[in-house]
Amino acid sequence: MTTSTRGAGKAPAVLVLEDGRIFRGRAYGAVGATFGEAVFSTGMTGYQETLTDPSYHRQVVVMTAPHIGNTGINDEDMESKKIWVSGYVVRDPARVPSSWRSRRTLDDELDAQGVVGISGIDTRALTRHLRERGAMRVGIFSGDAVQDDAALLARVQEAPEMKGADLSAEVATTEPYVVPAIGEKKFTVAAVDLGIKGMTPHRMAERGIEVHVLPATASVEDVYAVSPDGVFFSNGPGDPATADHPVSVMRGVLERGTPLFGICFGNQILGRALGFGTFKLKYGHRGINQPVQDRTTGKVEVTAHNHGFAVDAPLDKVSDTPYGRAEVSHVCLNDNVVEGLRLLDKPAFSVQYHPEAAAGPHDAAYLFDRFVSLMEGQRA
Known about the structure:
Blueprint: E1 2-3, E2 12-17, E3 22-29, E4 31-41, H1 47-51, E5 59-63, E6 67-68, E7 87-89, E8 92-93, H2 106-112, E9 116-119, H3 123-133, E10 136-142, H4 149-158, H5 168-171, E11 177-179, E12 187-192, H6 199-205, E13 209-214, H7 220-224, E14 230-233, H8 244-256, E15 260-263, H9 265-273, E16 277-294, E17 300-312, E18 319-321, E19 324-332, E20 338-343, E21 348-351, H10 366-379
Parallel strand pairs: 4-5, 5-7, 6-8, 7-9, 12-13, 12-14, 14-15, 15-21
Antiparallel strand pairs: 1-4, 2-3, 2-10, 3-9, 4-10, 11-13, 16-17, 16-19, 18-19, 19-20, 20-21
Helix pairs in contact: 8-9
């Protein structure tokens, strides 16, 4: 429920967590009520890319950086056609944006798209609470939506949880489309859209790949109808335990031995396709400063993340799967969470983080080259 009220940034607003913790501040963006899973993002830049990332569908994002909105909103950095976050939480929003590329303020953009937010709260205290208690359901209420605290808490506790949510089809394209190769076309890739970001096919196009983006409901036959040299499974929202259809499609690709690359949700799909389980992280990884080690080279990369679930695979051994041997290729150095998988007997690999990250860092951009190498090897 939202009511667009431009200029209502000083209206009282209330943030209510499902465990009863309450924060009071001012309305930011649209005025009304919104619900979702409270998560925090540690990025100091790239808020426009975060807001328009379909992986944030049904999440209320708390920005740990205190000053947000400094560069306004432009028309070039959108990762999709709309803002996907359910709500937005900032401490100290910029009063006036300062960027030659800015076309409007962040406050106005949130308002125009009906995104309810809150500002002026202690986001450090909220982040520490989520780190201790874990990601949880939350509601933001402003204007006429504000009621007594008990009534607001009851509404939050009635909202759906992220665990068990099947969301990829809600954010994916409904019709196939093609992103042409930049320069000479070298390969064709079928990309299964589970919540794909615009920069992902662009990174492939930069390498001479023509990308056929397919709906999340695409079948194995749909994938191979484009005669792909490789198959890609994208990022996306929701619980991977619900993604039985993408898992089935990926198994069909693995059986055929086509070069395969997955990012984020695609990594979890590969984990399930290989027979591993998935689980919900306490508060997830979100932001652009997560250290990950590529175990194949020993190199440590600073990477961009947005995931609340992870693959449950052994770190200390090579595993036997129906598609040959598999191993954990990347690991998060903060908490030893699996950040990548690769097959040793077939041309398939995945990472949990975002090597395409438009706002940076770009330490992991080589993974697209690795995908190209797999397709070159298959062709040879």
